[in-house]
Amino acid sequence: MTLTPQETVEIFQELKRLKELGHTVVFISHKLGEIKEICDRITIMRDGRTIDVRMVNEVSEQEISRLMIGRDVLLKTELGEYMLGIKKMSREQIGGAVHEQ
Question: Does pTM surpass 0.90?
Answer without folding.
Answer: no
